[in-house]
Amino acid sequence: MASETILDVAIRQFGDRGFEGASTRAIAAAANTVMSSITYHFGGKEGLYLACADHIAAHLAERFAPIMAEIGSPADMDRQQATEATCALIEQIALLMMSDESRDWTNFLIREQQNPGPAFERLYSGIMHHMVELLRALIVRVRPELDASAIRALGIGIFGQALVLRAARATVIRVLDVSEIGETEKKLLLDQIRYNIKALLRSDPPS
User: Fold this and answer.
1) How far apart (Å, rounded) are the C-alpha atoms in residues 136 and 155?
2) Which candidate in 62, 106, 162, 206 could, as Cys together with 166 as Cys, close a disulfide (CB 3.0–4.6 Å)?
3) What is the C-alpha separation between 168 and 165, in angstroms, rounded?
4) pLDDT in tens, 97-122
């Protein structure tokens, strides 16, 4: 579909150049379409930008909703099961962050993290919010003695281990002393993340 092609191109250009830096003329040219197509499908630049956020949110939901359904309800888990479920959830996020698929999405998301607007609300209010709440509920099962603030802070620390693999990809590659993240590096990083999560869930938060 023409609208799908426009969205894919727009996500890339908005991610690389930001809302102000990207032009609908350049997006239309890169999508091999005419400017009027953007107006027809999205109403203009702002409508296109918001549609990009919805497009990313829909893809994230398509990918993670089945994973979250398979994990199930934390209320039915003991501590060991909740720990393993936390590892499984973050592992899937990490795999996405290490894939080529996430590049354009993440660039778009990082810009919205730095300067949140209506697009961020659309991104966060859907599957991202549900993922964060699932992680919080899993941590509650493992560390029920922690207060709400400590649980949320711990969740940020756990979640961030996956996000850094894309948000700081160049640094990750440089530190690993490789030219790209291959299968060997993926396994190494996933094993380390799993170890870290288990250690974090065992340890007391800083006072």
Assistant:
1) 6
2) 106
3) 6
4) 999 888 898 899 989 988 899 999 99
User: What is the tens place of the pLDDT at every residue in 22-54?
Assistant: 999 999 999 999 989 999 999 999 999 999 999
Q: What 3-state class would DSSP assign to 73?
A: coil
Q: Residue 7's Cα: distance from chain center in Å? A: 18
| Cα–Cα distance for residue pair 184/83, rounded to 1 Å | 24
Can you tell me the distance from the alpha carbon of 21 to that of 55, in angstroms, rounded to the nearest whole number?
A: 20
48-65 pLDDT, tens digit per residue, is: 999 999 999 999 999 999
> Which residue ranges form the domains of the chain, and what is each CATH number?
55-202 (1.10.357.10)
The answer to whether residues 90 and 161 touch, using CB atoms and an 8 Å cutoff, is yes
Alpha carbon distance 99, 87 (integer Å)? 18
Contact 162, 155 (CB under 8 A): no
State how far the Cα of 59 lies from the Cα of 109, in Å rounded to an integer. Answer: 13
* C-alpha torsion angle, residues 84, 88, 90, 93 (rounded to 10): 180
